[in-house]
Amino acid sequence: MLSKSRVVVISSVSGGGKTSLIRLLVRNHPELWVAVTATSRAPRDEEIHGVDYFFYTEPEFQVHLKNKEFLEHAYVHGNHYGVPQGPVLEKLEQGRSVILNIDFQGMRTVRERLKDRVVSVFILPPNREEWENRLRSRATDSEEQIRRRLDQGELEMQVAPEYDYRVVNDVLERATGEVSAILESIGAV
Length: 189
Description:
Blueprint lengths: L6 E6 L5 H11 L4 E2 L3 E2 L14 E2 L2 H9 L3 E7 L2 E6 H9 L4 E4 L2 H11 L3 E7 L3 H11 L4 H16 L6 E4 L3 H14 L4
Helix pairs in contact: 1-7
């Protein structure tokens, strides 16, 4: 089947495993391009500017926002996030499918803007206990931040039915295979 460039929105609750799934998916499908999201939050120890995120100060983020440089943007967990639109549109024009690691607010905006070019996948944690363990094992958030992420995640899971597909991330390789099969079935890879 010929590849049809698509915007593949992958969303999940914080700690749902979407970043690990996306890394494995791209390793299996190097033709996919992952958009780098911009954020106003501080980088975690292992994160690299321009690779994991574009880390902007609040004033820098506001300049990009004012210049309408984002395909979508949202304020989540006390920080701004946004996907720079120029690189995404460029990759689509080149015939490459693009992965966006964004939340449900972003999915709604991108779907509204790009219509039938968007396919959306919501990654669900296998259960509450495993989900909470994943958040705690990061050792990057305070107890208050973990509680906020769990509360926000409960709300996010309520909108999962809006997505084209839902995949449970119980075993990373199996879940990645399921997402890969979805993308192959629609010709995105």
